[in-house]
Every structure is written in C-alpha cells, then in structure tokens.
Specification:
Elements (H helix, E strand, L loop, with lengths): L2 E5 L5 E5 L4 H10 L7 E4 L5 H13 L2 E4 L8 E4 L7 E2 L1 H4 L9 H8 L1 E5 L12 H9 L3 E5 L2 E5 L7 E3 L5 H12 L4 E5 L5 H12 L3 E3 L6 E4 L7 E4 L4 H13 L3 E5 L7 H9 L3 E6 L2 E5 L9 E2 L11 H8 L4 E6 L8 H8 L3 E5 L2 E6 L7 E3 L3 H13 L3 E5 L2 H4 L5 H6 L4 E5 L8 H4 L1
Parallel strand pairs: 2-15, 3-14, 6-7, 10-11, 18-19, 22-23
Antiparallel strand pairs: 1-23, 1-24, 3-5, 4-5, 7-9, 8-9, 11-13, 12-13, 15-17, 16-17, 19-21, 20-21
The chain binds uridine-diphosphate-N-acetylglucosamine (UD1).
C-alpha cells in the first residue's frame, strides 16, 4: 500500500493545473448506458474512481476505451449491448457513486440490479431518494439479498419533489427521465455544476432537459438517445484544495484550468481569512498567502453554499488562523475523521456533534497519520505541507480515488512530497526525489 511522505515548510510558487471533475465524469460515463452509440468524453481525470466505473460498465457489457498518449484523458464508451444490467457489491462497496447506473439501466433495459451501498466512512448515505424517485416514474422496486431491483417496461414522466437535496439522486433520475414517456418535473434538485454538466451532455445526446443548475428541472422524455462528444468541466474540489494549499503555505500560486465561478464560496471565505485571492482570467485563480490568516466560521451547504467536499481541507487552514473558527458540517454526519489526525499533528480541535471548534494558531509537527476518506486525506496533505518535519500519510489509495497524480502536481510548485510503496525502505525526501 502506498504512502505519501511530505516535508513541510516550502511555500508553493508557480502554476498548478486542475484536472477534469471526477464527480462530473462519473455520471457522464453512466449516461453512456442510455444509448447504443459511442459517447466520447474528454477531460476525464486519471483517478481510481474512474477505473472503478470503467470496470462496472464493462461488467455490464459496455465497451470502454481509454485514450493514451495525447488523448490520455479521452474515453470512448459504447453500450451497444448490455447483457448484464447489474452493479455488483464488490464494485459498489468501493464507490458509492456506482448507484448512478440504476436510473440509466432501468430506462434503457427495463431492468436494473444494483447492490445497496451499505455504510461508508462518512455516515449512512442511503439511496432511498433514488428509489422513491424511480417509483414515481413507474418502476417496480424490490430489495432482496442486499440488491435493489428496478423494473419498468417504459418509465413514465411524473412530478418529483426531492425531500432532501441529493446530487447523485438528481443526476440518476434526470438520466432515467430522459428516456421516460412524457414530461418529468423535478423540484428541490441539486444545483451543483456537475448536474448542469450532465444535462449538457444528455442534451447533446438528444435529450430535452431544461433548468439543470437550478432547483427545478424539466425533462421531456424522448424515445431514443444517440452518441455525442463532450468535455467534462474542471474539478472544483481539486482546484479548492490547491487554492487552500497556496494560502496555507504562504505561497504565490496560479491555479489554472479551473472555473473560478465554481469556487466562489471558498474565495469569499478565504478573503475573510485575510488571504489575497482572485480570479485573474476566466480559468485561473491567483492566491497569495503571505499575510497572517484570521479565523472564520463556516457551514457546509448545498451548492452554491460552501461544499462539504472542501470542509476537511478548510479545517487544515483554520488550524493556522489566529482565533477560533467554528466549522459546522450540515450535509454528512460523521465527516470529521480528519480532525483527530490533525490533532495528532498539533492542532487544537474539539468536536461537538456536527460542529468542530478549531483554536488557532498552533504549530503543526510531522506525525504518521492515516487517511480515512478521500477529502480527509487531502486535508492531511495540506497540514503536512506546513508541518515541521516529515509527515507520513498512510492509506493513500483514498486520495488516489479523486486526485490525479497529486504528488507530481504539488512537487511541480515546490512541495517536498514523494510516494513510497510499502515494500520500499523509508528514505528521506532529499535522497529519493
Ligand atoms: C455527491 C458527491 C460527493 C459530495 C456530495 C455532497 C458525487 C459522485 N459525489 O455525493 O462528493 O460530498 O454529493 O455534495 O457527485 N441522502 C439521503 N437519501 C438519498 C440520497 C442522499 O438521505 O437517497 C442524503 C445523504 O445521506 C446526505 C445528503 O442526502 O446526507 C446529500 O447526499 P448526496 O447529495 O446524495 O451525496 P452524493 O450524491 O452521494
């Protein structure tokens, strides 16, 4: 199992490039199940969740061709025949977003079998809203042996009001409704940019979707969808992670290839923290982290609020801000696992239910720490960049789920970071890089 070894203290200076959004790529790949023609997706990030999704789609009978060389980030998917419309537990358990195939499969094949995801590191994460929505579209649902089975000869358009805002739930049902008979109007939808990106792809495939990116989405079902070519939007969580890295390390960083509008909530927050940060072009944010950081409270919310996926990284920053910051996690229960590892590095953090109280600034010192989930591991990388000494982060496979070559990218702007395999002897950074 790989580990990351990071020696803190270097300000990050230079230009760092953001990859395509994992959370837009995953539903886009699932959308390819809706047609028997090829769908070409560009700007697909080279991360482990994408490989998992590839395996999942191939297990159903879809052909997935990954680009290489200059076309490295292009993926062509063709679901000509889907002999096995099923998502097995082995794959769903490693990636909850596998449930995104439920809607497309039942819409295209009339039947879908998807394993229930079970608990995961950041709380219960049920899929009841996906199921209720499909029932509203006329599917018959049974749950047996840990699998959800959905059946419908053809789904029928209907009105769906989400009891709670759900990102993949909105995406799953939007895909299902695209091939349903008649009009579906969904209310209280997620407004995340990834939802709008999926709708853009579906419309290129011949769907008739309006309002994606707002809380009401209308979908006029069509009989058939066709192939299309689409470029995935940049990853706003990766961009946010680098922006925070620039601020925290006291660097001068250009985060490029991103969409600054998608990180507005973070940029506003960082200004409150005293960070000089601004969009300098339509795809580049400059962050200068040379001033003192001030504490600021934050509450995670659905988009366009402050994202839960940036909470862990922001917590790393608040450990270095003067004063007390209160971080409230509203979206997921149990999403503070990184806090105890940050405390082991010297942070002063108290957890009270859904609130984390961070008292700064306390010096951080290197320690052996454990990555517990994707964004928690990013938070540990950030803390390690400013900690004194050499931090070793174990269970790096979590970070590989959603960050493309993070150590190479950070090394490119001056971080002392390297990856080691378990079998390799531990060596100092200077020797190995
Ligand atoms: C997506 C993102 C994830 C992000 C999350 C919230 C992808 C692949 N993943 O996850 O990175 O952290 O949005 O921004 O895009 N809920 C239910 N019943 C359901 C579905 C959800 O109760 O059927 C609850 C969840 O437990 C959670 C809340 O709704 O408390 C929001 O979850 P949701 O938006 O569905 O998250 P995901 O789509 O899984």
């Amino acid at each position: 199992m790989d580990k990351l070894v990071i020696r803190g203290g270097n300000p990050l200076i230079g230009t760092i490039r953001v990859s395509g959004a994992k959370n837009a790529a995953l539903p886009a790949m699932a959308a390819a199940l809706l047609t028997d023609e090829p769908v070409v997706l560009e700007n697909i990030p080279d991360v482990r969740d994408i490989q998992t999704e590839r395996k999942l789609l191939e297990s159903m009978g879809a052909e997935v061709e990954l680009g290489y060389g200059r076309a490295h980030h292009r993926t062509t998917l063709c679901a000509r025949k889907l002999a096995n419309p099923e998502a097995a537990y082995e794959l769903v358990k490693t990636m909850r977003a596998s449930t995104l195939v439920l809607g497309p499969l039942v819409a295209r094949c009339g039947v879908a079998r998807v394993s229930l995801p079970g608990g995961c590191a950041i709380g219960a994460r049920p899929i009841d809203l996906h199921i209720k929505g499909l029932e509203r579209l006329g599917a018959t649902i049974t749950t047996e042996h840990g699998y959800v089975e959905a059946r419908a000869e053809r789904l029928r358009g209907n009105q769906i009001v989400f009891e709670k805002i759900t990102v993949t739930g909105t995406e799953d049902l939007m895909m299902a409704a695209a091939l349903a008979d008649g009009l579906t109007v969904m209310e209280n939808c997620a407004r995340e940019p990834e939802v709008a990106d999926l709708a853009a792809l579906l419309n290129k495939m011949g769907a008739r979707i309006e309002g994606a990116g707002t809380s009401t989405i209308s979908i006029h079902g069509v009989e058939k969808l066709h192939g299309a070519r689409h470029r995935i939007i940049p990853d706003r969580v990766e961009a946010a992670t680098f922006i925070i890295a620039g601020a925290l390390s006291g660097g001068d960083l250009l985060v490029t290839g991103c969409d600054p509008h998608h990180v507005t909530a973070l940029l506003q927050k960082l200004e409150e923290n005293g960070v000089k940060v601004r969009a300098i072009t339509s795809d580049t944010v400059r962050v200068e982290g040379d001033g003192a950081l001030h504490a600021s409270d934050v509450t995670t919310e659905e988009y366009p609020g402050f994202p839960t996926d940036m909470q862990a990284q922001y917590m790393a920053l608040t450990t270095q801000a003067e004063g007390t910051s209160v971080i409230t996690e509203n979206i997921f229960e149990n999403r503070f696992m990184h806090a105890q590892e940050l405390v082991r590095m010297g942070a002063n953090i108290k957890i009270e239910g859904r609130r984390a109280i961070v008292r700064g600034k306390t010096p951080l010192s290197a320690a052996a720490v454990l990555a517990s989930d994707l964004r928690a591991s990013a938070s540990l990388v950030l803390a390690a960049l400013v900690a004194e000494g050499e931090t070793i982060i174990d269970r790096v496979y979590h970070i590989d789920r959603g960050y493309e070559r993070i150590e190479e990218k950070l090394r490119g702007v001056g971080a002392q970071i390297k990856r080691i395999g378990e079998m390799l002897p531990r060596r100092g950074i200077a020797e190995a890089s």
